[in-house]
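Example 3.2
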Amino acid sequence: MIRPFRLRDVGLVARLQREGVLLDLETGLTRPRSPLAAAVVSSLLPSRNGASTYVVNHKDENGHQLGLAQMRRRPSRPEYVLVFIAPALTAGNGAHAIWQRLLTHLCVKAGEQGGQRLYAGLPIDGEEYQIFRHVGFTAYAQEDVFELAWPTPRLTGAAPLSLRRQHSHDSWGLQQLYATVTPRAVQNAEGSAQSQWELGRRGWWGAYPPRQGYVWESRDEIWAALQIRSSHGGHWLRMLLHPDAIDQADGLVAAALSHIGRTPGQKLYCAVRTYEAGIPSALTAWGFQLVGSQTLAVKHTTVWAREPVAQPVHALESHAESATPSAVPRSKIFIHKGKTRSNATPNHR
């Protein structure tokens, strides 16, 4: 049986978290809170954006099945991120079946709680994606993560772009930039393009630190965007750069470094999709090093919608609607994940 985490499960979760798989690099690198700590905090201090943790502790004729899965809701968006699952597939003892049961259960729970999409970041190599695909997840992009430790080297000849603070009225310009940079398949996987780059609000207990946003304008249009999410574990950067301004990538990285406060020992991470040309080479020039890659996968859950009845009810108006909701599946994309980096871009899946 799969059930929500309870405080009596502390010992079980403490054991399982040592043999699980992290499914979200941003969470693991910049907010390294253990699955047990996140589960306990969410249990004692419930929050809409807190962790939802589910456990399997079941005995049957096949033996004792133990498992753990944890997801978190993204602030102000109808989406969930799967952050951890245990045990690892290499543990054997029915781990594949446990994963499939847990993933299916989380998809249902996310949909019941209003989530339209459930995301996960999977290892590039390995069999994890095969389990996710069997449950209905599809891969839509590869993301590389670069790391820079202070102090930063200096790159001569790269003047920082003149960025200004992001404002609410920039939503349309950011949406246009996002649509220009991002392949259609990725846009479909990520839902509303506009919400991807809107600045969210801070959770009251800090589950998701707020983002700082900056934009660069050229010819009265937004040609570059920078967002920074900072926490005690480090800074997480995301950048957008217009394809016609790739020669400004060094200046965008220089501007990003100038807007980040330097703290000894604190690291800086930048996530780059494989279709975002120009940025990886600029990061390398500034001393960033590739530290990890993940395949981004999404599962579109079902949402409840009202459907008009086929025939009018004589006792009611002719335009009456059925009071019974029906499950309508969200649109899906079908992309095959390759095993090599050259096959990892969305256009080759």
